[in-house]
Design a protein that fits this description.
Oligomer: single chain
Number of domains: 1
CATH topology: ph1033 like fold
Number of strands: 7
Strand content: 25-35%
Number of helices: 4
């Protein structure tokens, strides 16, 4: 799997006392990835960009953006903006995810746990990402590491 478009991460907070958000959406599923009232941020990831979704301290999904801009579902309350995404990878064992998929292990630094809120974050704009994955090839090195760590074919 080519990860050259892996440029983003997004923290997800499950709603309505759900243990995990987007749990039903395994590999090849399409779903609406929600944003809270920030169309500018929702529109930042380009079509075909990849995002690592994090929740409860774990990386739970790798998704690809399929549309060109966000849409609005007025009936969804605070989370009325969305992008259509396709799941390329998910954590699999939701009942017992194990430490291997902890965000700090996938990103290889603990400060990733401080990336809160629901906005998409461009990896190379994050000072802690740049400090850990330094150099001109830092993003490429991270993409290669994620490919191996998540065992992506």
């Amino acid at each position: 799997m080519d990860l050259q478009n892996l440029k983003w991460t997004k923290n997800i907070v499950p709603q309505n006392n759900e243990p995990w958000a987007y749990q039903p959406f395994g590999k090849s599923h399409l779903f609406k990835l929600a944003w809270r009232d920030n169309q500018g941020n929702a529109d930042k990831p380009a079509r075909e960009d990849l995002l690592l979704l994090r929740q409860r301290g774990y990386v739970t999904h790798l998704v690809r953006v399929l549309d060109y801009k966000s849409e609005n579902d007025a009936w969804c309350g605070d989370f009325n903006l969305y992008r259509i995404v396709e799941t390329l990878w998910d954590i699999g064992d939701w009942a017992n995810p194990g430490t291997f998929f902890r965000a700090s292990k996938v990103f290889r630094y603990a400060a990733v746990l401080n990336y809160e809120g629901g906005n998409a974050m461009y990896l190379t704009d994050l000072p802690t990402f740049k400090a850990r994955w330094q150099g001109d090839d830092g993003l490429k090195a991270f993409q290669a590491y994620v490919h191996i760590h998540l065992n992506l074919a």
